[in-house]
C-alpha cells in the first residue's frame, strides 16, 4: 500500500506538511495525491475511532449472520445492496462458510434491534435465515486497542 | 591481618580507571525529572512482535527451563547460518562457527578477550557505542580511537585507519550502521579496510547489530569479501532487528578457531544464553521477516521527519543511512554538548544525549533517538525549535 495511505490510516489528521517531511516529498504533492485518492473514491471518508463504552450511550450493537438465496444474474449483490441501505446496518460483508452475509447492526436498544431483524431483515424475499449475536464489550476496533496501554517502561536514557 | 594503612586497594586499578559512562551520568540527571520527552533511548519503542513472545511463552509452558548446549540450540544455529548466508552473503557452519551469546555485548567481550594479548592495540571508530573502549581496557588491551567526521557523514575510511596502525595493532572494530551517527560504509570503504586488514594481518570485529535498519543503499558486510571470513568476527543480534532488547540475545560467526576460543570463555562465564530467549529467536528467524520490513518502514518515516525538522530549525544534521539516531551539530550556539542538552532538558523537558557520551569527538553534537513514537518526536521537535529560536535571538 502507498506509504501516504498507511500514514493516513494511522492518523487521518496528520498534516500534509508533516507527511511531506516523513516521505521526503513536497507538500504540494501530498495535497494533490490526497485529493486524487478522494476523487477516485479510494479514500471514502475520515472518522474518529471512539471507545463508545466510555460514553454511556443508549445503544446496542449486534452481529447478524444471514443466509440468503442467490439470484440468477446478480448473485448476492441485489439483496446485499438493499440491506446496505438500512441506516441500522453499519457494515456488511459477503462471507464464505456457513452463511452468506455478515451484518454489523446498531440500534437504541435490544428491542429495536430485534424488531429490525424480525420485521425488516427476515421478511425480505430471499433471506432464508438469520442468527443474531449481541456485542457486550469492545476490546479492539479497527486495529486500535480500547484500553490505553501502560506507560513506556524503557529506561529514559540508554546507550 | 594488615592494618588500614597498608591495606591493598580493593578494586583493580584497570577497572577503577574506567571513567564513569556519560550515559549513566545523563541518566542520573534525567531520572530525577518528570514529564520529559526522551530522545535518549537506545532501544526500539516497539514491543517484541506477539508471535515471537508467544513462542517463548509456549516454550515455557512446555517446560523449556534447562541449560542448552554452550554454543546455543542447534536448531537456532542452523537457522542463523541460513539467515547470515542469505542476508550477508557469507556461509558459516552451524556446528563449529556460530556461537549464541547473551546479547552482542557479551559477544563483543568474548571476541576481544579471545584475541587480545596484554598491550595489544585495538582500533575503533569514534563517536561510537559506549562499551568498546572499556571492554578493550578490561582485556588489558589498548584502545586506539579513530575520529570520524561529519563532512563525510562519519564514515570510516581506510586512510583514517592506516594512520593509527602500529606493530602492536591486533584488530579493528567496525560498527556500521553506527550508534550514534547512523553512518554506513560504502563498498570502496569496506574493500579498502579489508585490504588493510590483510596487509597488516589484523582481525576485524564487525558489530552489525543495526544492519537490518538501513534505509538507503546496500549493506555490505566485510565478512562477505573474498578471503576475509577467517579474520572477521561477525557479531549480530536480535535486539534491534526484532525489538528484543530484554531477551538479551546475540550471536557471533567466526572461524572454528576463533569460535572455539570465544566458546571457552563463554562456557565458563555464561554457560549458555537463556533458553527462552533462544526459543523466541527461532520464531523470529522463521517467521519474523514481515516484522522487520514494517519496523524499518516506520523508522524511515521518523528519520525523514526528524532530520528535516532539525535542519529546518537550524541544527544542521546529516541524514543517517542506518540505525535510529539523528546526530545534529549544535556547536554553532557557543555551548558544550553537555550544557546544550542540560538547558534543553531544563527549559523544554526534552532529553537528548550529549555527543560526548560517545567519545570526546562527539563534542558539538547531540544524539536524538527516533526509536520513539511519531507523536513524541513531533512534540519534541516543536519544543526544540522553540529552544533554538530563543538561542538565535
SSE layout:
The complex is a heterodimer of chains A (159) and B (393).
Chain A: H1 3-10, H2 16-23, H3 27-40, E1 60-68, H4 77-84, E2 89-94, E3 101-107, H5 110-121, E4 127-134, E5 140-141, E6 144-145
Antiparallel strand pairs in A: 1-3, 1-4, 2-3, 5-6
Helix pairs in contact in A: 2-3
Chain B: H1 13-16, H2 22-30, E1 37-38, H3 50-61, H4 74-88, E2 98-101, H5 103-115, E3 121-126, H6 132-138, E4 142-147, H7 158-162, E5 169-174, H8 187-199, E6 203-207, E7 232-237, E8 250-253, H9 256-269, H10 275-287, H11 289-313, E9 325-326, H12 337-348, E10 350-351, E11 353-354, E12 366-369, H13 374-392
Parallel strand pairs in B: 1-10, 3-4, 3-5, 5-6, 6-7
Antiparallel strand pairs in B: 2-8, 7-8, 9-12, 11-12
Helix pairs in contact in B: 3-10, 4-10, 5-9, 11-13
Overview of the molecule:
Chain A is of the alpha+beta class and 159 residues long. Chain A has 2 domains: 38 residues, Arc Repressor Mutant, subunit A; 85 residues, Alpha-Beta Plaits (2-Layer Sandwich). Helices cover 31% and strands 21% of the residues of chain A. In chain A, the strands form 2 sheets. In chain A, strands 2-3-1-4 form a 4-stranded antiparallel β-sheet. A two-stranded antiparallel sheet of chain A has the order 5-6. In chain A, strand 5 and strand 6 form a beta hairpin. In chain A, helix 2 packs across helix 3. Chain A is extended and about 65 Å long. Chain A starts with a helix and ends in a 14-residue tail after the last strand. The relative contact order of chain B is 0.17. Chain B has 2 domains: 135 residues, Aspartate Aminotransferase, domain 1, CATH 3.90.1150.10; 238 residues, Type I PLP-dependent aspartate aminotransferase-like (Major domain) (Aspartate Aminotransferase, domain 2, 3-Layer(aba) Sandwich). In chain B, strand 3, helix 6 and strand 4 form a beta-alpha-beta unit. The N and C termini of chain B lie far apart (66 Å). Chain B is an alpha/beta fold and 393 residues long. The interface between A and B is medium-sized, with 15 and 29 residues.
Amino acid at each position: 500500500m502507498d506509504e501516504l495511505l498507511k500514514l493516513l490510516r494511522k492518523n487521518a489528521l496528520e498534516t500534509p506538511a508533516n507527511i511531506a517531511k516523513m516521505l521526503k516529498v513536497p507538500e504540494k504533492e501530498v495535497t494533490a495525491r490526497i485529493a486524487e485518492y478522494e476523487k477516485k473514491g479510494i479514500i471514502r471518508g475520515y472518522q474518529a475511532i471512539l471507545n463508545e463504552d466510555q460514553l454511556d450511550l443508549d445503544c446496542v450493537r449486534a452481529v447478524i449472520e444471514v443466509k440468503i438465496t442467490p439470484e440468477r444474474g446478480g448473485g448476492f449483490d441485489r439483496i446485499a445492496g438493499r440491506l446496505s441501505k438500512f441506516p441500522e446496518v453499519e457494515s456488511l460483508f459477503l462471507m464464505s462458510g456457513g452463511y452468506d452475509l455478515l451484518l454489523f447492526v446498531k440500534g437504541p436498544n435490544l428491542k429495536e434491534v430485534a424488531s429490525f431483524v424480525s420485521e425488516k431483515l427476515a421478511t425480505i424475499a430471499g433471506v432464508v435465515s438469520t442468527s443474531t449475536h449481541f456485542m457486550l464489550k469492545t476490546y479492539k476496533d479497527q486495529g486500535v486497542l480500547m484500553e490505553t496501554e501502560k506507560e513506556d517502561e524503557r529506561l529514559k536514557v540508554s546507550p | 591481618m594488615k592494618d588500614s594503612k597498608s591495606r591493598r586497594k580493593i578494586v583493580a586499578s584497570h577497572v577503577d580507571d574506567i571513567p564513569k559512562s556519560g550515559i549513566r551520568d545523563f541518566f542520573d540527571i534525567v531520572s530525577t525529572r518528570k514529564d520529559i520527552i526522551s530522545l535518549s533511548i537506545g532501544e526500539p519503542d516497539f514491543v517484541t512482535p506477539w508471535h515471537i513472545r508467544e513462542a517463548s511463552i509456549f516454550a515455557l509452558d512446555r517446560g523449556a527451563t534447562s541449560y542448552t548446549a554452550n554454543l546455543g540450540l542447534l536448531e537456532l544455529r542452523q537457522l542463523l547460518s541460513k539467515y547470515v548466508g542469505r542476508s550477508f552473503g557469507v556461509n558459516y557452519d552451524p556446528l563449529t562457527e556460530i556461537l549464541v551469546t547473551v546479547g552482542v555485548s557479551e559477544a563483543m567481550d568474548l571476541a576481544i578477550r579471545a584475541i587480545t594479548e596484554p598491550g595489544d592495540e585495538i582500533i575503533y571508530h569514534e563517536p561510537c557505542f559506549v562499551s568498546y573502549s572499556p571492554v578493550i581496557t578490561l582485556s588489558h588491551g589498548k584502545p586506539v580511537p579513530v575520529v570520524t567526521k561529519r563532512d563525510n557523514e562519519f564514515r570510516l575510511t581506510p586512510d583514517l585507519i592506516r594512520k593509527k596502525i602500529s606493530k602492536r595493532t591486533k584488530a579493528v572494530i567496525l560498527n556500521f550502521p553506527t550508534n550514534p551517527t547512523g553512518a554506513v560504509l560504502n563498498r570502496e570503504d569496506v574493500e579498502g579496510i579489508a585490504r588493510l586488514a590483510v596487509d597488516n594481518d589484523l582481525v576485524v570485529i564487525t558489530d552489525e547489530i543495526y544492519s537490518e535498519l538501513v534505509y538507503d543503499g546496500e549493506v555490505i558486510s566485510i565478512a562477505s569479501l573474498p578471503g576475509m571470513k577467517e579474520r572477521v568476527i561477525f557479531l549480530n543480534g536480535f535486539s534491534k532487528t526484532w525489538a528484543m532488547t530484554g531477551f538479551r540475545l546475540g550471536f557471533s560467526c567466526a572461524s572454528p578457531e576463533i569460535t572455539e576460543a570465544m566458546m571457552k570463555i563463554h562456557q565458563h562465564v555464561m554457560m549458555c544464553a537463556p533458553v527462552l530467549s533462544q526459543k523466541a529467536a527461532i520464531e523470529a528467524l522463521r517467521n519474523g521477516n514481515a516484522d522487520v520490513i514494517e519496523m524499518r518502514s516506520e523508522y524511515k518515516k521518523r528519520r525523514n521527519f526528524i532530520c528535516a525538522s532539525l535542519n529546518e530549525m537550524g541544527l544542521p544534521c546529516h541524514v543517517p543511512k542506518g540505525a535510529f539516531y539523528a546526530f545534529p551539530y549544535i556547536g554553532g550556539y557557543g555551548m558544550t554538548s553537555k550544557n546544550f542538552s542540560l538547558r534543553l532538558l531544563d527549559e523544554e523537558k526534552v532529553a537528548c544525549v550529549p555527543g560526548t557520551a560517545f567519545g570526546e569527538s562527539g563534542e558539538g553534537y547531540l544524539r536524538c533517538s527516533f526509536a520513539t513514537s511519531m507523536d513524541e518526536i513531533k512534540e519534541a521537535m516543536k519544543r526544540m525549535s522553540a529552544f533554538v529560536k530563543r538561542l538565535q535571538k
